[in-house]
Specification:
There is one protein chain. Helix content is 26%, strand content 23%. It is an alpha+beta fold and 198 residues long.
Length: 198
């Protein structure tokens, strides 16, 4: 089985109705690269910044991204589709789903997963979609039977408590096992632009 066939076979989807139909999918063909890059440029994603489209495509190719979509048969804004977009599978039209959020895993698909770039556009917050997205992230991680460690970075004030409750995660410092978690920001981090050490 080719890598492309394996990815297609491992695509997961979740559906929800809240006044409108919503979809969360790991299908990379649905990702709107223009939406994602605009999100990276948003102050809400203070750790990220806009990137060249070829580099964005490379990053997404090597990630598992849960895209959050709203059913919108008449999209109000143009899409920048994946450069590898093919004909949509029978049962729905790819263009009917407007991307409104994402959560991305940097992962080896077997033992390790790092959750990052969790974002929902402002117009679609406070409706339970964020909690649903995080729940789906948890279900995706639960589908890795040989997972050794899942990690993320979160704010001390809000994120730490939230993700501890959502995923059962702990601060590495408090886990024992004589572990430390070490990090170095690179030139692609917006935290460098703010003269922040993280």
């Amino acid at each position: 089985m080719s890598t492309e066939q394996q990815r297609k076979a491992s695509v997961r989807e979740w559906h929800k109705e809240i006044e409108s139909a919503y979809l969360i999918s790991t299908n990379p063909k649905l990702l709107d690269h223009g939406f994602i890059n605009t999100s990276f440029a948003s102050p809400d994603m203070y750790w990220a910044k806009e990137m060249p489209l070829d580099q964005l495509a490379l990053m997404l190719e090597h990630s598992v991204t849960l895209g959050l979509y709203k059913y919108a048969p008449e999209p109000s804004s143009p899409r920048t589709p994946s450069p590898t977009l093919e004909e949509p599978e029978p049962g729905y039209k790819e263009e009917d789903w407007q991307q409104i959020g994402l959560a991305r895993f940097a992962t080896d698909h077997v033992t390790f997963a790092f959750l990052t770039d969790v974002y929902i556009s402002r117009d679609h917050r406070a409706s339970g979609l964020g909690s649903w997205l995080i729940q789906c992230c948890g279900e995706w991680m639960d589908g890795l039977p040989l997972l050794r460690r899942a990690m993320l970075m979160a704010s001390e004030s809000v994120g730490k408590e939230y993700y501890a409750k959502a995923f059962g995660m702990e601060d590495v410092v408090g886990m024992g096992h004589d572990l430390v978690c070490m990090s170095k920001t690179g030139p692609g981090s917006a935290l460098n632009d703010a003269n922040t050490t993280h």
